[in-house]
């Protein structure tokens, strides 16, 4: 019960009298002894009490603030009669703490005095003599005349009308490029407690940040003020007096009326709706001759984090680049923009505000709504679907009379790597040059292009876009859609013959042919004589066998094609079949 004036209140206006000394500079134990000595002196004659008796039986170790005149306080109490211990009132029984102002006569004089110097969470027992309580009249039949009263008090809160929001930084990142300002949108975690330490709310318990605009009325006024000037990653204690919090109404069942609130805040994220991308170039390779444009296809590695450094995704963990077209809407708008103007091998940090990322919705459990995203990217390669094979000659012999072309058999050394320098394959791994016939579809199209037109001893660097290489699917050891760099050296060149031919004349052949083949003039040509004839033509540069195959086998096939009756010898009539079969019999591989 709480009585007042004509309502038989036991909280009467103050009367003249001394107040106990302030204890803000005293040790709690010494302060308690001081009060006890003060009381003893007042009552040393054994007569009635002349002042309050204060027993500070439970004092907190830390007391940043003590009750002073004009302070408002919120406290629990049990009130009992000194004579028989009978309880006459209790805020505990009502389930609601008592709120009043100290030192201005809103309480009985004994309580105005007895509450001075008290700390939050302190427990004290205040014994009040009648003349500082309800005197010879008593109160409403509940408190008898000339009653000594005993109040057992637990202080829960202190504030003053002159109080301001208090903020104190607990920790702060070494670098802080931006601080919060009104109209910014914040994402932060907090623990909210009353001044007594009782928790009333926590974002950590729901594992979800509190998100709000700053200075737009979305928050209580004290938080609108206390959150200004914070850095992402900063921890701050913000103490908000009741009139800048939820005031006399409180908030539901969690925040009582006229409660001072203490917030321990960790700022996770900040952005402004007017923010654009922030691009920080970390590394640019020397000799960058080409930069990405819309329509290019790019492969890059990235680490994705929030502003507080917490990772949400990484291509490195998957050991696979992220591959996409640029400027075509395949990625978030911010990245579509940020991926333009990059060099191969370049490293950048890209900060993307949520309105250029995943917005208010976020992505499931992976990315919260309204999250600023930070990407540290490393460009591996990029190309355009219209790119041709790029050939750069790094060394060319002074004499270059014969160059490689289709059907030639060549030997070459090579290193094949990604554009970031990662070596994929090398002829050095096999201790011998690689061999291929140009035009035989034995190597990827881009390498075929790069090996064409080379002199023996020539060296080249050949850049092969994926549509000239292994395409979107890649190959063993070759990533999907990878641009390849070949370092080539042509070691040996054997001129070839057209596809489907075993032997070609390098000019006009003998006419008539059979007498030239019949080396001994006996009107018949066995295999040995035929072989000798062909090898003479090759040696004298008049004809060419298909390179890369066993010459004896080729000649045997040619002979069998001419030996129509299969008697092991060719005669002139067999060499002149009807129509164009001479050409087919002497030149084409019919196997």
UniProtKB/TrEMBL annotation:
| GO molecular function annotations of the record | metal ion binding; peptidyl-prolyl cis-trans isomerase activity
Is Signal there in the keyword field? yes
Q: Which gene encodes it?
A: fkbp10a
Annotated compartments: Endoplasmic reticulum
Q: Which residues form the PPIase FKBP-type domain?
A: 70-159, 183-271, 295-383, 407-494
Q: What does this protein do?
A: PPIases accelerate the folding of proteins during protein synthesis.
> Which InterPro entries does this UniProt record tie to the protein?
EF-hand-dom_pair, FKBP-like_isomerase, PPIase_dom_sf, PPIase_FKBP_dom
Which Gene3D superfamilies does UniProt cross-reference here? Answer: 3.10.50.40, EF-hand
What species is given as this protein's source? Echeneis naucrates (Live sharksucker)
Q: Where is this region: Disordered?
A: 565-591
Q: Could you name the domain of life of the organism this protein comes from? A: Eukaryota
Keywords noted in UniProt: Calcium, Endoplasmic reticulum, Glycoprotein, Isomerase, Metal-binding, Repeat, Rotamase, Signal
- EC id: 5.2.1.8
What protein name is recorded for this chain? peptidylprolyl isomerase
Q: Which PROSITE patterns match?
A: FKBP_PPIASE (PS50059)
Under catalytic activity, the entry for this protein gives: [protein]-peptidylproline (omega=180) = [protein]-peptidylproline (omega=0)
Instruction: Provide one Gene Ontology cellular component.
Output: endoplasmic reticulum
Q: Which PANTHER family match?
A: PEPTIDYL-PROLYL CIS-TRANS ISOMERASE FKBP10, PEPTIDYLPROLYL ISOMERASE
């Amino acid at each position: 019960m709480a009585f007042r004036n004509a309502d038989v209140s036991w909280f009467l206006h103050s009367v003249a009298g001394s107040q106990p000394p302030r204890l803000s500079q005293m040790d709690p134990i010494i302060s308690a002894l001081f009060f006890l000595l003060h009381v003893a002196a007042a009552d040393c004659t054994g007569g009635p009490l002349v002042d309050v008796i204060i027993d500070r039986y439970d004092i907190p170790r830390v007391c940043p603030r003590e009750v002073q005149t004009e302070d408002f306080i919120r406290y629990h109490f049990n009130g009992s009669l000194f004579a028989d211990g009978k309880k006459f009132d209790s805020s505990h029984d009502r389930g609601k703490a008592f709120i009043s102002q100290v030192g201005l006569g809103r309480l009985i004089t004994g309580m105005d005095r007895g509450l001075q110097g008290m700390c939050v969470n302190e427990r004290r027992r205040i014994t009040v003599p009648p003349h500082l309580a309800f005197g010879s009249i008593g109160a409403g039949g509940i408190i008898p005349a000339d009653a000594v009263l005993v109040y057992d008090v637990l202080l829960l809160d202190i504030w003053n009308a002159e109080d301001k929001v208090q903020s104190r930084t607990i920790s702060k990142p070494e670098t802080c490029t931006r601080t919060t300002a009104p109209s910014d949108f914040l994402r932060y975690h907090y623990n909210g407690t009353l001044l007594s330490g009782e928790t009333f709310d926590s974002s950590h318990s729901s594992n979800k940040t509190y998100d709000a605009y700053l200075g737009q009325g979305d928050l209580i006024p004290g938080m609108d003020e206390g959150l200004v000037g914070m850095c992402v990653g900063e921890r701050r204690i913000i103490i908000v007096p009741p009139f800048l919090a939820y005031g006399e109404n409180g908030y539901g069942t969690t925040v009582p009326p006229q409660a001072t609130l203490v917030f321990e805040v960790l700022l996770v994220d900040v952005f402004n709706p007017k923010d654009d991308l922030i691009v920080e170039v970390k590394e640019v390779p020397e000799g960058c001759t080409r930069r990405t444009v819309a329509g290019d296809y790019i492969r890059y590695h990235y680490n994705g984090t929030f502003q507080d450094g917490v990772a949400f995704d990484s291509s490195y963990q998957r050991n696979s680049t992220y591959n996409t077209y640029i400027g075509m809407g395949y990625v978030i708008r911010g990245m579509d923009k940020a991926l333009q103007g990059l060099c191969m091998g370049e490293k950048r940090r890209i900060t993307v505000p949520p309105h250029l990322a995943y917005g208010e919705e976020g992505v499931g459990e992976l990315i919260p709504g309204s999250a600023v995203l930070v990407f540290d990217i490393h460009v591996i390669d990029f190309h355009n679907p219209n790119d041709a094979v790029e050939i750069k000659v790094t060394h060319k012999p002074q004499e270059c009379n014969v160059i490689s072309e289709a059907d030639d058999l060549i030997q070459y050394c090579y290193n094949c790597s990604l554009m970031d320098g990662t070596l994929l394959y090398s002829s050095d791994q096999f201790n011998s040059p690689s061999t291929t016939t140009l035009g035989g579809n034995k190597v990827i199209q881009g390498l075929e292009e790069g090996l064409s037109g080379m002199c023996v001893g020539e060296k080249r660097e050949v850049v092969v876009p994926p549509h000239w290489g292994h395409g979107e699917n890649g190959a063993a050891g070759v990533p999907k859609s990878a641009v390849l760099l070949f370092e080539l050296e042509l070691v040996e060149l054997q001129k070839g013959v057209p596809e489907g031919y075993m032997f070609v004349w390098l000019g006009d052949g003998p006419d008539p042919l059979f007498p030239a083949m019949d080396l001994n003039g006996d009107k018949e040509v066995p295999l040995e004589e035929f072989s000798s004839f062909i090898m003479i033509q090759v040696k004298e540069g008049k004809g060419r066998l298909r390179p890369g195959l066993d010459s004896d086998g080729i000649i045997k096939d040619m002979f069998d094609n001419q030996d129509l009756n299969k008697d092991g010898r060719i005669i002139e009539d067999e060499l002149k079949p009807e129509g164009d079969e001479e050409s087919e019999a002497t030149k084409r591989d019919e196997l």
